[in-house]
TrEMBL record, chains A, B:
DUF2520 domain segment(s): 131-245
UniProt-listed InterPro entries: 6-PGluconate_DH-like_C_sf (IPR008927), 6PGDH_NADP-bd (IPR006115), DUF2520 (IPR018931), NAD(P)-bd_dom_sf (IPR036291), TM1727-like_C_sf (IPR037108)
Residue ranges crossing the lipid bilayer per the database entry: none
Gene3D superfamilies tied to this protein: NAD(P)-binding Rossmann-like Domain, ProC-like, C-terminal domain
GO terms of molecular function: NADP binding
Protein name per Swiss-Prot or TrEMBL: NAD(P)-binding domain-containing protein
Residue ranges of every copy of the 6-phosphogluconate dehydrogenase NADP-binding domain listed in the record: 2-85
Source organism superkingdom: Bacteria
Pfam family, one: DUF2520
Lineage: Bacteria, Pseudomonadati, Myxococcota, Myxococcia, Myxococcales
Organism (species): Cystobacter ferrugineus
Length: 268, 268
């Protein structure tokens, strides 16, 4: 059973239902209930709730703990309670008191419930072997690659997800700031830079991080790096510097010792 | 005339030729000359060189200055000399001595000469009105959006281009490092994170930087940010921290004052 008829709840419910999983969706508001009917899915009745084997909470992070408290008494004894929030540990579901708990966090920005989830990954976490097998089967059926994430490593995992989305946007915003200094508007800068960023990502996809990393650091060109730092406003330089050091850790081993030393001096 | 039959030289020559510009390509090695013939383009003869109006140097950055010295005496008096290197000022072409100089730097990673340049941007720089008009017409004909970059702003412009390509790859490598700490291999991490990064870029394309920036900073969730910093290894935290501060400058104005102050304390 899926609780919540938002974009993620809808996408999971549709994908599982298409693979003949017996899905029912619980939605509170009349608007959400109408969405569920529009998707051609069944709304959860009291009987469905009492007989559900797995209850997937697809609600905003802040609603997970209250929803867990609300749902625990309504579910059958053996039913598992699972949240879909990347940032939250299993503790967000409250004390287990004999109930099997888990987390199922698809690494995907769902912009419409009808979007396909296939080709993305999902982070799974649970202490129950039975639930892990169920969640892995779910993942496989909807085309998600399952990653097992241990509870004590969840924060690092989630920080990585955040770095790859918001973090990349922040790096891009420093790039746009640099172009603003050169008299180019945000709109023109994004139109110019987004294709570059995308081609860099294709390079990483094809050749990995170290070989896909390009630019003056990769060429060991300390003069260009020094000119960049001199030209950037402080807030963009504050991003350029650590990202360059990070790049240096990717490619430093293949640079001549002298270039490596000069770059370190400039960047430190 | 295009000097150099590498990927960029080939792509420009093919695109200009398709729009009926009278293009000839000069290539030194027999292998490069064969490539030019394979593309169906004409090789430059001595007569072509003497009658060329614009000479585009499509050579590696380090070869620009020697190539300029080599070509200046061979070209007609009124012919313009133009390089295609983003990092280099016009000074890389040496003293003008009456010759019109310029730079034409397409913001695009060309992986094959037959790739289309259309939809990307190009940074133009020249002190000559005549040459600027020619370069703008070239840009328009091959589908490149022309950005005018002043010489004294070139380093900032180029730093932005580098941030949007290598810088983004460096941010992604910190994300992969975070997932490594969570027991996930580089290969699995990239497969999981690249779709997230791409969807974040689509968000920026559709809604701009500030609205396309997502994650705990955008939600004002200081607790999650503190947990991330505690969980990350120092080298990944050294990237996470400045990128988060940069994100905060994008969205801080829409956060409650208390959340903003807490985030600043954690990140500073």
């Amino acid at each position: 059973m899926v609780v919540g008829a938002g974009r993620l709840g809808g996408a999971l419910a549709l994908a599982l239902s298409a693979k003949r999983w017996p899905v029912r969706v619980w939605a509170r508001s009349e608007e959400a209930r109408r969405r569920v009917r529009d998707w051609g899915l069944g709304l959860a009745t009291e009987k469905d709730i009492a007989s559900a084997r797995v209850c997937l909470l697809c609600v905003p992070d802040k609603a997970v703990s209250p929803a867990a408290e609300e749902w625990k008494p309504r579910l059958a004894r053996g039913a598992a309670l699972v949240h879909c929030a990347g940032a939250l540990s299993l503790e967000a579901l409250g004390a287990p008191r004999g109930r099997v708990l888990g987390s199922f966090h698809p690494l995907v920005a769902v912009s419409d419930a009808r979007d396909s989830l296939a080709g993305n990954s999902v982070a799974l976490s649970t202490r129950s072997r039975w639930l892990r097998e169920v969640l892995e089967r779910m993942a496989k059926d909807v085309g998600l690659h399952a990653l097992r994430v241990k509870e004590r490593q969840r924060a690092a995992y989630h920080a990585g997800a955040v770095l790859s989305a918001g973090g990349v946007v922040a790096a891009l915003s420093a790039a746009v700031e640099a172009l603003r200094v050169a008299g180019i508007s945000e709109e023109e800068a994004l139109a110019a830079l987004l294709p570059l960023t995308r081609s860099a990502l294709r390079g990483v996809e094809a050749r990995g991080l170290a070989a896909g990393y390009t630019g003056p650091i990769a060429r060991g060109d300390a003069e260009v790096v020094a000119a960049h730092l001199a030209a950037l406003p402080p807030d963009a330089a504050a991003v350029y510097r650590p990202l360059s050091l990070r790049g240096l850790s990717l490619v430093g081993h293949r640079l001549p010792a002298e270039a490596l030393a000069r770059l370190k001096t400039i960047l430190d």
